[in-house]
Design brief:
With 381 residues, this protein is α+β, with helices and mostly antiparallel strands. 31% of the residues lie in helices and 23% in strands.
Length: 381
């Protein structure tokens, strides 16, 4: 594995995020999984091979970018984008405003966004654009082999639900406030063109930044968070992601992201056997918060526990049954394969054993699946 540790933090004595150069099939997906993903550690992939499939660059480079004669990217091919996708209604954040701890969002046609991007008295950022779902026949990119074990999006695609595969586009100065990703999932983000500055904190260190009401900061690029005397400062990690690089953001790592120039990126949120337990524990933690919030109604409210699950889904986008349904779906698919994926089956079995103690309606199904997984695994481990 070829790693370059020259990517130092910018302002704090924190861990270094390695750059890993991809050459053909090296490093292998198993190496990346075992050394980084399973250990919940961030990294950056570099080299043209990480944004190509079978040595063929992603289609997005030819269709969405205008290149100079020497092959260097110069700018977005706005005419092509408008001609083919200008009528798409896309979600857009206004980075010049703050509402309820985030940037307010609206929807507009892609054409309007492109005409307003980087101009006027507001700073617009196209975010969470479900391009793949809206244009299933257009293969602008392929998920890198390192991230194809993606239970969340596999389930969403199979069931025709909203997925967690997005396109982002923003001009210089557009940014995303301090946050952790949905369900404390993993994310990978590939810069097609442009440059981003990432500020990250390992899991748990965000607690050092909460105010007296328990709220996280909106912006960590201002004092007191940039001062060496702040307790969170030694844990702060800063890194610049360049064009044609992919960054992996592990579960529960809070982060803030700034576009240093006009940047087009592809971003996936996902979980698999490496972090399903972390996502499940985060879901349980948030259920405890919900239960505490409405505990005074426990004795008087009919079906109080079901109401808590409804509120959990409203807050998190998932409740227990949603999460368990994903695991069951993936388990059935893995058991149906001619060549079982042992790593996934072991992880699923371990998850089902944890979940078996929860009061859920699918206990019989889960018990049956555990037996089938054990029967399959006896031939492989």
């Amino acid at each position: 594995m070829n790693t370059d540790h020259s990517i130092n933090t910018i302002s704090a004595p924190s861990p270094i995020i390695p750059r890993i150069k991809v050459f053909g099939n090296s490093p292998s997906p198993e190496e990346i999984r075992d050394n980084y993903i399973a250990k919940n550690l961030p990294f950056i992939l570099t080299g043209d091979a990480c944004l190509s499939t079978n040595s063929i660059p992603w289609k997005v480079f030819d269709e969405w970018l205008v290149c100079s004669e020497n092959g260097q990217v110069s700018q977005l091919d706005v005419e092509h984008i408008i001609r083919h996708y200008g009528e798409d209604v896309v979600p857009v954040a206004d980075c010049s405003k703050q509402e309820y701890g985030t940037h307010p969002k609206t929807e507009m046609k892609f054409t309007e966004f492109l005409s307003r991007m980087g101009g006027g008295d507001c700073c617009l950022y196209l975010k969470d654009y479900h391009f793949v779902r809206m244009h299933e026949d257009v293969k602008l990119y392929e998920t890198p082999a390192y991230f194809t074990s993606d239970w969340l999006n596999e389930y969403c695609v199979d069931k025709g639900k909203d997925d967690y595969r997005f396109v982002y586009l923003g001009s210089t100065g557009s940014w995303t406030p301090f946050h952790a990703d949905v369900l404390h999932s993993f994310s990978w983000s590939a810069n097609v063109v442009g440059k981003k500055r990432w500020i990250l904190y390992p899991p748990g260190k965000e607690e050092l930044m909460k105010d007296q009401l328990g709220n996280l900061p909106f912006d960590v690029t201002i004092e007191p968070y940039t001062l060496p005397t702040h307790p969170s400062y030694p844990h702060r990690v800063e890194v610049t992601q360049s064009s044609r690089e992919i960054i992996f953001v592990p579960s529960g790592w809070h982060h803030q992201v700034h576009n240093l120039e006009t940047t087009l990126s592809v971003n996936h949120n996902w979980f698999n056997g490496c972090n399903a337990e972390k996502c499940w524990n985060y879901l349980k933690y948030n259920l405890q918060l919900v239960e505490k919030e409405i505990s005074e109604f426990k004795d008087s409210m009919t079906d109080w526990e079901s109401h808590c699950q409804v509120l959990l889904r409203a807050h998190m986008g998932f409740h227990f049954e949603d999460f368990i349904e994903i695991l069951i779906h993936i388990a059935n698919k893995r058991l149906g394969m001619n060549r079982p994926q042992v790593f996934d089956l072991v992880a699923l079995r371990d998850m089902f054993r944890q979940i078996a103690n929860v009061n859920i309606s699918r206990r019989t199904t889960i018990e049956t699946l555990v037996k089938e997984i054990n029967k399959t695994l006896q031939y492989y481990i």
